[in-house]
Each structure stands twice: as C-alpha cells, then as structure tokens.
Amino acid sequence: MSKNNQFKKANELRNNGKTRKAIKIYKKIAESADKNQDYRLAIEALQQIGVCYKIDDNFKKAIENLEKAYNYAKNKKELWLAGGIARDIGITYEYRDKLVEAERYLWQSKKELEKIPQDAQLGITLAKIGLVKIRQKKFKEAKRYLNQALKIYKKDPWWFYEATTLLHLTDLYIETKKYKEALKILDQTEKIFDREKQQKTHLRRYAQIWGFKAFALAKLGEKEKAKILLDKTKKVLSGLGKNAAKIVLKDIRAQETESILS
C-alpha cells in the first residue's frame, strides 16, 4: 500500500474514532518518512498522532506529539504546517477548558498563516478563535470571527472547514438560545457532508450534527423528534472509541437532552 493510501486509511480510522489503529499506521508512516527525508510527510503523521490522542482524550500525549510536530515544522521552515499544528495545540487546550493557553496557540497559528497565501487555513484558525470566544461568553466577538472565516471560504472553498465552522456557529446559537437558527445551520451542515458523500467517513461529525439537533428540538419541545435523533446519535457513537464518544456526548449536551426528555 502506498504512503498516500496508508495515510488515507489512517485518516478514515481517525474520523470514525478508531484512534489506536490509526496511531499505529501514522507511527509507521512517520518513521519511514523521516528515514527517507520526506520531512513534510513525517511532520503530518506526527501531527495526526497528536490529533488522535486529542480525540481519545489523552491530553498529555496529544500535547507531547503536537509540540514535537510543531517544533519539527518550525525547524524545517514549513510555515503552513506549523500554523496548522499550532491551531491543533490550541484546540487541544480548548478541549480541556484551558482557554488562556488555547487562545495563545491560536493567535500563534494566525501569525504563522498570515505569512503565506493559504486563506482556508487561516479561515479555520479564525473559526477556532471564534469557538474560544464562545467558551469565554464573548458572543459578539465569536460571531465576528466565525463570519470572517465563512467569508474566506467563499474565496478559497474548503468544504470540511466550512462545515466545521458552521458547527461552531451552531454552538453559538445554542449558547444564546437561538434554537431555530441552530437547526437551520445544522441542516446546512448535514447537506455539506451528504454532498461530499461522507456518510461512512465522518461518522463522528454526523453524530455531532444529530446530537445538536436533538438538543435544539428538545429545547423547542419537539421531544419525539429529539428522542429519535438522540438514539441515532448514540447508536453511531457506540461504534467509536469510549473516550471519543464521551467527548462528543459532552459537546452535544446529551445529558441535558436526556433530562429534558425524561
């Protein structure tokens, strides 16, 4: 199997919560690429190892591998990769509600990416800054950053980044109790994943979409629809790793949804 196909296989495993299997493949790729002086591939593999540990809620190993990848990228002057890795470090801190550290790395990502013409990469960093602003309850600032990101994707389309940004916009609407607006954005997001034929590739994202829909519908009093979607979400998550599922359930406010439905 070629390195590209190995990477694609590992990405698919990662996206569906099979993080341990994905890590084994990424480690082999990183070791082989480093020996062959394919530094960019080695850096990307190390980065994805860190992302897998983040998904699996292993904070220490996530930061350890991401910082290793970041330093490697800086040493090889791979600014595009360094900017993306700094963003992943920031996101990892955000997962643990360490918002000061998260913001510091996201600003570093913004600084790196502003040096090169990679608009979509800069867009998703702005979206993650927006997410941190949501966590800080700075909702006007959050919306400004999210809208800036969505505007960038119109110039430099990147469907996955657009869908991720829309999920963060959903989070903003839910936090501000605008549940009908949240449902509209979720429908838009699901259509993007459907259009890109991601039904088998991004199960974790579908679980997030359906889980958010269940929460919003429950808040609007549509309990039957909410229960159907929550059950659908749990069925998908049961096939993922335990820690990956736990993070998604927290993110979609599953416990609060169940409380409303009981």
Describe what this molecule looks like in 3D.
The protein is mainly alpha-helical. The protein has a domain at 1-116: Tetratricopeptide repeat domain (Serine Threonine Protein Phosphatase 5, Tetratricopeptide repeat). 82% of the residues lie in helices and 0% in strands. It has 14 helices and no strands. The chain has helices at 3-15, 19-35, 39-55, 59-75, 79-95, 99-113, 119-135, 139-155, 159-175, 179-195, 203-219, 223-237, 242-251, 254-261. Helix 5 (79-95) runs parallel beside helix 7 (119-135), helix 10 (179-195) packs antiparallel against helix 11 and helix 11 packs antiparallel against helix 12. It is globular, with a radius of gyration of 18 Å. The protein starts with a helix and ends with a helix.
What secondary-structure arrangement, pairings included, does this model have?
Elements: H1 3-15, H2 19-35, H3 39-55, H4 59-75, H5 79-95, H6 99-113, H7 119-135, H8 139-155, H9 159-175, H10 179-195, H11 203-219, H12 223-237, H13 242-251, H14 254-261
Helix pairs in contact: 1-2, 2-3, 3-4, 3-5, 4-5, 5-6, 5-7, 6-7, 7-8, 7-9, 8-9, 9-10, 9-11, 10-11, 11-12, 11-13, 11-14, 12-14
Q: How would you summarize this macromolecular structure in one to three sentences?
A:
By secondary structure, the protein is mainly alpha-helical. The protein is 82% helix and 0% strand. It has a domain at 1-116: Serine Threonine Protein Phosphatase 5, Tetratricopeptide repeat (Alpha Horseshoe).
